[in-house]
Amino acid sequence: MTLTYGDLADAVDRTAGALASMGVRKGDRVAMLGENSPEFIQVMFACFHLGAVYVPINTRLAPPEVQHVLDDSGAKVLVHDTELAQRADAALALTHRAAEITVLAIGGSQLGKTDFAQTVAAAEPRLAFEPVSIEDPAAFIYTSGTTGTAKGAVLSHRNLTFVAINTIIDYDVVSDDVALMISPLFHVASLGMGPCRASSRARRSWSSGASTRAVRSRSSRSTASP
Q: What would the pLDDT profile of 79-127 be if each residue is shown by its tens digit?
């Protein structure tokens, strides 16, 4: 699947409109449980559009751990992949806040759930950007929780802006470069260094053979490590 910058901008405007229609406002948290995909980036930039806080969830977490992230972050919306529906449902069954969380499922029409694509397509585009300070929170990235419950590290708009600028400078990125994103976008390094710089080709999961073929076919100049 190929998206131009114009396609992505239109998708982000509509996603922002859909989230706004669900009551998402500046400072509200939107959680994403999904692998690398256009929707992952779409929801992230829609959050920035609204001044909301993006909360990507590690797809390797068990339901109680996902529940902790939803509760600790105070997520108002949860977007999840079709393949992760059972884990999302199990986490929602554990939280006392389930009635407060609006759920959108990518491929939801197959599951009898509110479908992400259909909801976005029906939404009025949100063209106006919510003013934010560079110090306002942009994302909560949760730690692995190896010594206790996972903790949400706050990344500001300044953090994400300057990690993108530093990556562009350090790697000498130019407009026609293509970056192969094989590391999970829920990880802080991938999130900061990947979608905020040049064109990216995101893979849902790591495969050495497929990734090598992708590099050869597109002559990718830089590759994100797993």
A: 999 999 999 999 999 999 999 999 999 998 888 899 999 999 999 999 9
User: Edge-to-edge strands of the sheet including 178-181?
Assistant: 199-202, 178-181, 222-223
CATH 3.40.50.12780 fits domain 5-156: yes
- pTM for the model: 0.85
The burial of 217, by beta-carbon neighbours within 10 Å (0-12 exposed, 13-18 middle, 19 or more buried), is given as exposed
pLDDT in tens, 68-87: 999 999 999 999 999 999 99
The string of pLDDT tens digits covering residues 28-71 is: 999 999 999 999 999 999 999 999 999 999 999 999 999 999 99
Domain with CATH 3.40.50.12780 in the chain: 5-156
Strands 152-156 and 137-142: antiparallel
d(CA 163, CA 180): 18
| Residues of the chain by 3-state class (helix, strand, coil), percent to 5 | 45, 15, 40
Closest-CA residue to 180 (of 218, 152, 138, 126): 218
Tokens describing residue 91: 């986490």
